[in-house]
Amino acid sequence: MMFEKTIFHTMPEQIAVRLRYSILSGELESGAPLREREVSDWYGVSRGPVREVFRQLTQEGLLVAVPNKGVKVAEKPSGPVRALLVKLRTEIESFVLDSVFDDITQKDITQLEKILEKIKQACLNDDMGALLEQDLNFHRAIIEQHDEKDLFSIWRPMALRMLIQYNRLGDLIESYHEHSRILDAIKKGDKAAALKALEDNIQ
Q1: Which end of the chain has less Cβ packing within 10 Å, N or C?
Q2: Going by C-beta distance under 8 Å and a sequence separation of 6 or more, which residues neighbour residue 138?
Q3: What is the tens place of the pLDDT at every residue in 169-186?
Q4: pLDDT for 66-122, tens place per residue?
Q5: CA of 9: how far to CAs of 13, 14, 15, 156, in Å?
Q6: pTM for the whole thing?
Q7: Is 70 left (phi over 0), alpha (psi -120 to 50) or beta?
């Protein structure tokens, strides 16, 4: 249930991970244009894999296709759009957690504990890119518990768009504490508290 596989079997997978990190970490600013030739030079590959990655990240909402100009990094959602994304994402994740809560196993909890530790390390290292990646890992691990696998395809673009130019946290360690409260409630079998902690985290 990891955000990305530990071992990448294809070149497009590797490039997608690197570009995604660059966008979420702020290394590539919103609105920045990206050209196939330029990105292929960055990674020393042909333009084919880069074209495939551009299509993938466009579908994820991190890139926007510009007719006759290639693609650019997506802009931060406007206030009203972000509010809508928060509402929709909260509804999806709350629905899933409520549905699967009684079926969460110790193995699932152990996996969440491992991700939570990575969240903590990213916070301590002041690494926003790694924090957002592990944040998504944590929520993905919950989403993928549901039998309806299409929910992940619906959820992912919303979650990624919300994290563009993410600046809600005054101190990164707040993210660790928020996710810790979700996991603590799951461990205690307190569904109401887990749902409340989840809702508080999605902002």
Answers
A1: C
A2: 112, 115, 116, 119, 179, 182
A3: 678 899 999 999 999 999
A4: 887 789 999 888 999 999 999 999 999 999 999 999 999 999 999 999 999 999 999
A5: 7, 8, 11, 22
A6: 0.83
A7: left
Does residue 83 contact residue 46 with C-beta atoms inside 8 Å? no
As a whole number of angstroms, the distance between CA 199 and CA 84 comes to 14
Output b/e per residue, 141-161; b: 16+ Cβ within 10 A: bbbebbeeeebbeebbebbbb
Domain ranges of the chain: 11-73, 79-201
Pull the structure tokens for residue 193.
């508290």
Q: Would you state the structure tokens that stand for residue 52, as one six-digit string?
A: 């495939």
Q: How many helices (H) and strands (E) does the chain have?
A: 9, 3
The CATH architecture annotation of domain 79-201 reads Up-down Bundle (1.20)
Please state, in angstroms and rounded to a whole number, the distance separating the CA atoms of residues 62 and 129.
Answer: 14
In angstroms, the first-to-last Cα distance of the chain is 23
Instruction: Given CATH 1.10.10.10, say whether it is the number of domain 11-73.
Output: yes
DSSP tag of 144: T
